Amino acid sequence: MVEQAAEAIVAGAARGIFLPGDRLVEAEIARDLGISRVPVREALRLLESQGIVVSTPYKGMRLMQVTNRGVGALMRVRLSLENLAVQEALMQLGGAERFQHLRRAGDAYATSIHGQDPALIVAADEHFHAELCRASGNPPLLALWLNLSRQLAVITGLTVQEDDLGAAVRQHTTMVEALERGDEADSRAALFAHINTNHNRDYEAMVAERRRKLA
Length: 215
What we know:
The protein has 215 residues and is mainly alpha-helical. It is 70% helix and 4% strand. Strands 1-2 form a two-stranded antiparallel ribbon. The radius of gyration is 18 Å and the shape is globular. The protein starts with a helix and ends with a helix.
């Protein structure tokens, strides 16, 4: 139930219910989820350990702030991890079948974009990249990526309703095809192009605009 509460909070951020810097009120979240406050309290502590929630004295729990500098730093770390995942995945024994789960995750993402729920689209994208890291056969790498994934979900939730999701599907497909044929250079190039799609986005302005519309 703690994990479900944590996922619900992250999904709320992806849907824009919670914006970066918003206060997360334990009692209100518990009421909305129809559960007791105990699992919500534990979920908030879990999310705090993952950097998604920040506890401030006298101000309570708040969703992580999103700054342009912070996003840039996070994306550089992400790119490094996923580049290593590409390298180590191609070192694993076997042929194209090594990437069957990744291909299925890409297909699931392509299906998700036809729905109206940003949280499901964000979750499908998260699953695709988790499968890339899982294909590396490197458990510490996967664990590090998963620890960052919820921060990435908050950031992706800010852009998903404005992005060209069809382009993201094509980028996923290009990456999978390059991996299946064992082409490391093309795999890395596809990964770089995909992750850097939002490189020049002004996330701080995006949050301010969302907040203005809700006022």
